[in-house]
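Form 7-S
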Amino acid sequence: MRWTFHYLPIKIRAPLAAALLLILVGAIASQHVLSRLSKTQDQNLQSVATVFLTGLSATLEPSVLNEDIWTTFAILEQFKGDGAAIPVNNLVVVDASGIVLAAGDPEKYSNGSALPDTIQSAGDVNKVSLVLTGESLWVRRDINYQGQPIGSVYAEFDVTRYLSERSSAIWSLFIGNALATLLLSIAGFFLIRRMLRYVSTISDYMKGDNGHPEPIPEALFPSDRNEFRELFARYNQLVSAEEQRRQAMTRLSEQARLVSLGRLSSTLAHEINNPLGGLLNAVDTAKRYQDSPEALGKSLELIERGLRTIADVARGTLDFYRTDRRAVALSTSDFEDIALLLEPELRKKSQKLVRHIGATDPVLADFSNGLVRQIVLNLLLNASAATPENGTLHLNVTEDPSGCLIIRIADEGPGLPADSRDILLSETPLNPGAGLGLRLVRDLVGELQGEIDILTHENGGTEIVIRLQPDSEHGYAA
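Output:
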């Protein structure tokens, strides 16, 4: 019940809680009224019984003292039919030892006999109570002479009228209270639900159809100017600001990709220019030695190698900047392309990249090659920038039993600065032109429902660990 109630919508949960509270208040009020009624009846019965038995005991005192049975019996008969405020079913007088002296019903309680235990246990007139009693109630009053007990008088009162009054009061209270509580609960339910309809509207539009908050149409705004109308307007302003922020982050991501591409463009131009020089030399040799099959063959081999080198560089660059980034499945060859793109940057600082690709192609096929390539290349470029000359970068790609992809990139730099760490792990605002690559990594990892962890080694260097969840339902092309 607790789990079910907790997960009910607030537009149902709050009115239902109010209705249940009203029912609880009604039950407590009913119990209080019944308690007061019972106490009032007990006090009334005690008062009437006290008056009756006090007068009777005073009248019986001489005859009980003298053990005059007939006079005692006559008095009992007189009081029994005297029209007491409470009907009296029976009267019994006993002496100090508890032996019956006289009774209103001699056949049932004969002279000289002992009273049954049920009657002897009757309560004193000052402790009369209708709780747990039947249609009749035995009450005792001691008869004293000069402060000494000389006997007792027992009276059996007919309390059906009290019980009937109590039963009628209980039913009237139950029906009336139930109807009033039900009406108030229903009214409270719909009143609170009406008050919360605007909260439900905000909640529905915050979820949106695609998981992103959506603006509330003007037609759904409250007609009167109140707090909710102002709240709707402020909510729409927040949604608009969030949409602008997302668009700005998208533009920043594109800029980051361009920045990364720009860093590679100069070295890639050099990589393409080198084989082009060789190609031109081979063409010149072929023209000069047209009649030499051996020279022509060597020239053609040189031209083929140069063209393959240019094709590899061009393919790696195009794959990195393809627009359909999520369309193609990741494979081990993508990490070879990344190494090819990174090679000119590493050569400038005499660095080397140590790769260990432990993940298999069937596991890699559940991930987008475009997104993962950008994540890895950006982190490797940052690792290269942080690592001194002749240093070593490490790329380790493995899988865990659940099919998650674990990417580890380690450098030999002085450690990741605090501002860069914040950019990679939080929504820290970017300074103009700074941290675009790291923010792009964070956004892409978030797009892939992944996690980022940063480790600092004792002997220096930083290791960034990316954990990506598989996306087997997407259906990437091989």
